[in-house]
Sequence to fold (132 residues):
Amino acid sequence: MKLTLKTILVFAGFTLLFAGCSSNDNNTPTYEDELAELSLLRADIEAMASASICDGTTLCKFIGLGSKPCGGPWSYLTYTTSIDVEKFEVAVKNYNQREKNFNTKWEIFSDCALTIQPVSLSCENNTCVLTY
Fold:
């Protein structure tokens, strides 16, 4: 009887030890968690861009925003040199890469239509305007 009880206790100990090491990690982000994080990052980027103004001393620019599953950006976003351009462009690059990784991880697909790239920019009422 003692041998059986000892065997049960050893088995129970190993079971608890391995259960603690299982791959069911509750800290793993869900699809919804990752999508919400991407939405917040995109909102921050759009806020940075909208804070920029064009005038006689700044230059209008545009950048592809997002990562379509078939390649290319979802849209183009205008900004000016009135903001920290390097910080902004790094944020967009990081966002685009994270969205690309998200698309791959969650097997996201799209219509694969190409997003038309703007052909020029103009400054109207202190706002950059894209021309297609």
In short: The longest strand covers residues 60-65.
